[in-house]
Design brief:
- The chain has a single domain (2-258), classed as TIM Barrel, CATH 3.20.20.
- Helix content is 40%, strand content 15%.
- It is built from ten helices and eight strands.
- Strands 1-2-3-4-5-6-7-8 form an eight-stranded parallel beta sheet.
- Helix 8 crosses helix 9 (236-250) and helix 9 (236-250) crosses helix 10 (252-258).
- The radius of gyration is 17 Å and the shape is globular.
- It starts with a strand and ends with a helix.
Length: 260
């Protein structure tokens, strides 16, 4: 199984990383992708990827941190992306729920990071919250720079928008929230074919049922995959294999690394 989005360097997990990594194989977890939020987490993610064979990393600025995007970040981002285990630009996007950075700044930084990803020939991993209209406006405006894949992390938008994304070849990742009683993800997944689905935990956040409210880890990814299999009406092995195919298709640097 694969956890396509987590934060092993978060303070809630970082003291237990060795223990968590050691247990991945026992839960049939092949690899995980540590996502960047800011300058330090970007460095931490690459350090973890260099240390552990099962860890890959992304580079990029979370919308909360957009006000700190500068030349130093931009230069470091490009330099780190040369690492064979840096597989995407993310998580990037817009978050109007907390508004921790000015909305215009968020939009400008989002658009620029799409262009950087294109130059780096990397897919983008999106964090969008309460900003789907503006996000789609930017994606349409930046269409010429979106050539390497799009992943909607922890997707919470409408079924109609999911349908539009699927038509453009976008991918969608779901985590613990898919197991919540009132999540109502069935209608969303009905619009997303199995070959566009990825699994994630967003650890240490959003632990799946029956562990909701606890610190989440990638060891919980089987609960997410099982729920996906139930919704699609397939056995968990088929779901697991399909997710693996999708992940390697979206992140070709992972496939290249694993096939060395």
């Amino acid at each position: 199984m694969i956890d396509s989005h987590l934060h092993l360097d978060d303070e809630m997990l970082c003291q237990d990383v060795d223990k968590i990594i050691e247990q991945l194989a026992s839960r049939n977890v092949q690899f995980v992708i540590n996502n960047s939020c800011n300058y330090q987490s970007m460095l931490n993610g690459v350090e973890l990827a260099n240390k552990y064979p099962q860890v890959f990393a992304t580079v990029g600025m979370h919308p909360h941190e957009s006000k700190y995007f500068d030349d130093k970040f931009r230069t470091t981002m490009v330099e780190l992306a040369q690492n064979p285990k840096v597989v995407a630009v993310g998580e990037i996007g817009l978050d109007y729920y907390y508004d921790l950075s000015d909305r215009k700044v968020q939009r400008d930084v989002f658009a620029e990071q799409i262009e950087i990803a294109d130059k780096l020939h990397l897919p983008i991993t999106l964090h969008i919250r309460d900003a789907y209209g503006d996000a789609w406006d930017i994606l349409r405006a930046q269409k010429a720079h979106i050539n390497n894949g799009v992943l909607w992390h922890c997707y919470s938008g409408s079924a109609e928008l999911a349908r539009q994304g699927v038509q453009l070849g976008h991918y969608y990742a779901f985590g613990g929230a898919i197991t919540f009683k009132n999540a109502r993800k069935e209608e969303i997944l009905a619009e997303i074919p199995m070959d566009r689905i990825l699994s994630e935990t967003d650890s240490p956040y959003m632990a799946p049922v029956p562990l909701r409210g606890t610190v989440n880890t990638p060891l919980n990814i089987p609960l997410v995959v099982q729920k996906m299999a139930d919704i699609y009406g397939v056995d968990v092995k088929q779901m697991e294999e399909q997710i693996a195919q999708n992940t390697l298709r979206l992140f070709p640097k992972i496939a290249q690394y694993l096939n060395k």
